[in-house]
Structures are given as structure tokens and as C-alpha cells.
What does this fold into?
Amino acid sequence: MPPASPPADLPQLALSAATADAYCEAILAQRGVETWWYLTGLAPYRGYSRPFRDRTGRWWWCVKPHFAWPLDFFEPPARAVPPPRVKCLLGYQDRVAEDAGDSRVWMNVILDTRGYDVTSVEANKRRAVRKGLKELELTIVDPGDSAVAAAAQEVWVSHVQRTGWNRPLTSARFVESWRQLARTPGTTVLAARDPQQGGLLCAWLIGRVVGGVAYVDTIASHTERLAKRPNDALVFAFVAGAARLPGVTRAHYSLVSSLGPLERFKRSLGFVPTAFPARLHVLAPLRLALRRLRPGIWARLRGEGDWNRVGEETEPS
It folds into this structure.
């Protein structure tokens, strides 16, 4: 399928792209950097999620302390080998063929981004996307610039206070983490500014393009600066821009959550909740404890239930 023509209002964004090797090695070259920026405020200890290789060279990361997933969950490996046990003492969950799975991992994905354009968005979301593209200035910013990071932190604090998700971070930690973004290939920070308010920063998005996949890492918006639809514009612009890069054919926007409005937002922009077949390898005592004492967590880990229906009861915005 040939690339679709971008909307007239879509800015030309030179997104950064990297191989999995380049991306992960850059993270490992820096102290305490998480595999994904959003984990910076959620980490139980610094650097818990850092990537590592198995003996075939395949990359993994810890989604929970000492519990690992492969970096690329889209396809089962040609040759499946376990990750180093010392890196995942509690276990791991690997992508497998459909007939080999004992669990499912629900992720929001676009399996073919080629031709992604405004018609890929739900009909009732297109006006919001066009409004954001028309009324806001979308640009790539340098996360290593202290002034950029300071403005971004203000937005982040507002976002955390509104949503109750994640932590605001100290100024020093926020600025440090953004400088680390600047040193990580495959990373792009997009900003949505309001030209009618002197370029006031409304929202920002951290996107990663790694190994042919466009990942929405983190998006944050200021509570008082939502009227011009910066979130819609940023996600659309990132996916549309990534879809025009050579070799980028897929997009990923986190696990499916239990938050209906959030899942409606993702779906309205073209992401589809998809169950990937997987196989669980969990330390036996932990498996027993979860099944008996925390059955809800165990069911979530196994991907039980219709996670593709989260948000169906919520009216689209």
C-alpha cells in the first residue's frame, strides 16, 4: 500500500529512528535510564527496567522488577531461548505462536501504519485532529535544552495532578531525564504550542521509533490548555510522521488499561486492542501465591477477560 498524502496542516516532522541495538545500547550507556521514559516516575528503584540481551542477541526489558518481556512483542522469535535468569529472577513472558500460548498480552497497536492518515481516525475524532493541527504549532524540541525541560515539567505536573497517574518528579530529576532522552537515538519529543498565546506549551509527546515500530512512550498536557486539542494532534502527527519513514509499519500505544476514557482515546486515533499469544514462565512460589492470594493480578497477567471491550460504555470525546 503506497503512503497516503498527509493532510495539508500536518507539519513535516523529521522523526528520529533507530535499530533496537542502537536504542538499547544508548540506554545502557547512561546511568539509571529506564527503557521507557514514563517509568521514570513509577520505578520502584532506579534502572529496574533496563534492557538486556539473551544469548541470541534478542532484547528484553523488565516490565516489573525481575519480570521480563521481549522488547518487540509483535512476532514470535525464530528461535526461542530464555532470557538470562539473573535478569529476571521472578520470571518472564514471551511471545509465541497462537497454538503455543498459555496466556495473552493485550496491547494497543496499529498492525499496518502504511497509509495512516485522517481517514484512519474515527469519524467523530477527525474534527479534533484537524483543529489541533490548524490552531497549534507542532514542532520537534530539544529535550536537552533546560528551558524546554522546565516548560515541559510545568505541563507534566499539571498532567499528573489532573490524572492521578505517575509522579511529578523533582526539577533536577526531570531535567536530568530529559537530557538523557537527547542522548538516546530513536527518540523524538514533540511539542504543541499555542501561537495565539505567545507559543505557550500546551502538551508534549515522547515518541520512539525503534526497529520499525513507532512507540507512543508518554504524552502529557496542561489541564488549562486542552481546548485546542493538543493530545489528538500530537498522537496523530507522531503516527502519521512515523508511517512515512522507511521500514516503519507498526505503531504501539501501551498496554490496554482499565480506564475507559483513556482506551476510547487510543482507539479513536486508530489503535486496536490486540491480544498477543504468550507463554508465562513464573517462579513456582510466586505463581502459587498469586493464584491463591491475588487472583485478580494473576488473571491480568494471563490476559483473561475481554480487554478489547474496555471503554465501550464510555462516550467518545
About this structure: The radius of gyration is 19 Å. The helical segments are 20-28, 126-135, 146-163, 171-182, 230-243, 260-268, 284-293, 295-302. Residues 118-272 form a domain with the Aminopeptidase fold (CATH 3.40.630.30). Confidence is low (pLDDT under 50) at residues 1-5.
